[in-house]
Design brief:
Blueprint: H1 11-17, E1 19-29, H2 68-80, E2 84-85, E3 92-95, E4 105-108, E5 115-123, E6 129-141, E7 145-149, E8 161-165, E9 172-178, H3 188-206, E10 218-227, E11 238-243, H4 246-265, E12 273-278, E13 283-289, E14 299-300, H5 311-320, H6 325-336, H7 340-348, H8 352-360, H9 365-383, H10 394-405, H11 411-422, H12 428-435, H13 443-456, H14 458-465, H15 472-482, H16 489-502
Parallel strand pairs: 11-12
Antiparallel strand pairs: 1-9, 1-10, 2-5, 3-4, 3-14, 5-6, 6-9, 7-8, 10-11, 12-13
Helix pairs in contact: 3-4, 8-9, 8-10, 10-11, 11-12, 13-15, 13-16, 15-16
This protein binds adenosine-5'-diphosphate and magnesium ion.
Length: 503
């Protein structure tokens, strides 16, 4: 076999000649207070090896006891993904030796997952909906964390020594496995990203995990294969492990498609193997040749009784499920009357919650969108921060819009009020008072300003009297200038006409 690596094939070129198939395995760390099979804490960031018990250390004679909260979370996830929930299922031992697995086996589920045969609709950036079929969602425990010290790459090869932290060993995980996703063509990378993103949103909506990608709460393994045509049998897949950002999921799939096309073009075959993703260079490299299931000598876990969730309990859990993110988005779009493109911009800007709270605080949906996607989006961009991190609350934007609706400030003044709020000068009401920004509709003050403007432009008065309303605008402009934009323009127009008739 030649040792040279075939060149990558340009992505569009690869897609024009091959049909990609993807499959995604997502691991989510559940947010339970204690581990899957013992009472050790799951708190993030503790000193290494302080959150362990004889069970999570695999000491002889230590017996596991299943965490009910973890089972409930797994059922919630299964139901949210439209799965069947097993009436009875068992744990299995997946046997292998590695220092981060102190028992020399991982307690997992194998052929009896708690949830199976589901589906979830995901929405791509342009609004296209793709249905992803779920093969199963099963419970398992996390392994400990190895740290390889002294090498250049942080991997075991070239390291001088390794450290193991068992704090993570035994933290409950749910692994969700898709059926092969076919028929998505050049959108495969985007589908993979949108799918993981949708799951993250669901985990958060269900409140089963903090689902923070950067902490590794959610990790994805992406399987990719190519075939010559959509009619051909599935090709050999590779599994790129532990990709932990949305963007990396998309890039990893894209890269694998280009790489495998190169391998096939060179007349070789794709090796079924795990691969590592390299964030910095955007490439994958070979890991280990994939073990077959039989290598793990799976057998039923004798120390745990089967899990048999009653149908009543499952229905109780189903009744507590919150609205799912995609359905919620659709409902809000209808309620708010936004066009598809407007809604998409709102979603991409992460502004749904902000607008929802602004509307709850009394602003019309159109006005709420105008503030968050206009003035505030520009400010956030200039400051280089997220919308949600701006020093203004949706309640304050709601109050500001109410001032506009009541005619107490006009659009221009409202922007000045907002600037005051952003500068930390207090609530919109407080800024109006402190800066004296209210619209002047008090006739006394306006009359004086109108008379002054009329006196300065006698020719205009003549024209208006002659029936030409056009120049009224010039007088209003002069009054606005004199009142620093605070005059009530409608009232000024009325006064001008009255004065001219009287005069
Ligand atoms: P493993 O134990 O090897 O991780 P799993 O069954 O847990 O296997 O997951 C395999 C994933 O790969 C699933 O999402 C499955 O749909 C997907 N898959 C299987 N065959 C192919 C293929 N030929 N091409 C792409 N994805 C595939
Ligand atoms: Mg797997």
């Amino acid at each position: 076999m030649s040792t040279t690596t075939p060149p990558l094939v340009d992505y569009d070129e690869a897609i024009s000649r091959f049909d990609p198939v993807i499959g995604i395995e997502v691991h989510v760390e559940l947010g339970t207070a204690t581990k899957m099979f013992d009472g050790a804490s799951t708190e993030f960031g503790a000193e290494p090896n302080t959150q362990v018990t004889p069970v999570s250390l695999g000491l002889p004679g230590a017996l596991p006891a299943l965490n009910g909260k973890a089972v409930e979370s797994a059922i919630k996830i299964g139901l949210a993904l439209n799965c069947e929930i097993a009436e009875l299922c068992r744990f299995a031992r997946k046997n292998y030796f590695y220092p981060d697995v102190p028992k020399n086996f991982q307690t997992s589920q194998y052929d009896e997952p708690i949830a199976f045969d589901g589906w979830i609709d995901i929405e791509l950036d342009d609004g296209e909906v793709v249905r992803v079929e779920i093969e199963r969602a099963h419970m398992e425990e996390d392994a400990g964390k190895n740290t390889h010290v002294g090498g250049a790459t942080g991997r075991i090869h070239g390291a001088e020594y390794s450290l193991v932290d068992y704090n993570r060993a035994g933290i409950p995980l749910v692994e969700i496995v898709t059926r092969p996703i076919t028929g998505v063509g050049d959108r495969a990378p985007e589908v993979a990203r949108a799918y993981v993103q949708t799951l993250r949103d669901i985990f958060r909506a269900l409140d089963v995990s903090e689902a923070r990608m950067e902490r590794g709460n959610v990790r994805a393994d992406v399987n990719v294969s190519l075939r010559a045509t959509p009619e051909a049998p599935l090709g050999t897949r590779t599994e790129t492990k532990n990709v932990n950002s949305f963007r990396s999921v998309e890039r990893a799939v894209r890269h694998e498609i280009s790489r495998q096309a190169g391998v096939l073009d060179a007349g070789r075959t794709v090796t079924q193997e795990t691969r590592h993703w390299h964030e910095d260079t955007g490439v994958t490299t070979a890991g280990r040749v994939k073990s077959d299931a039989e290598d793990y000598r799976y057998f039923p876990e004798p120390d745990l009784v089967p899990v048999a969730p009653s149908r009543e309990w499952v229905e109780e859990i189903r009744a507590t499920l919150p609205e799912m993110p995609v359905a919620r988005r659709r409902r809000l779009q209808t309620e708010w009357g936004y066009a598809d493109a407007e809604m998409r911009d709102v979603v991409n800007a992460g502004a749904i919650e902000l607008i929802e709270a602004t509307v709850a605080a009394g602003a019309a949906p159109a006005a709420a969108r105008k503030w968050w996607m206009g003035e505030l989006a520009r400010t956030a961009k200039t400051e280089g921060v997220e919308l949600a991190d701006l020093p203004v609350t949706p309640e304050q934007i709601g109050q500001l819009q109410q001032l506009v609706d009541a005619g107490r400030v006009n659009d221009k003044l409202a922007r000045q009020v907002l600037a005051g709020v952003l500068a930390g000068e207090g609530s919109p009401e407080e800024v109006v008072t402190a800066r004296g920004l209210e619209v002047v509709s008090d006739d006394g003050a306006l009359l004086a300003a109108v008379d002054e403007a009329l006196a300065a432009q006698p020719d205009v008065v003549e024209k208006i009297r002659g029936g030409n309303q056009g120049p009224v605008g010039a007088i209003i402009g002069a009054v606005m200038k004199a009142t620093r934009g605070q005059a009530d323009a409608g009232r000024v127009r009325e006064i001008v006409l009255e004065r001219v008739q009287q005069g």
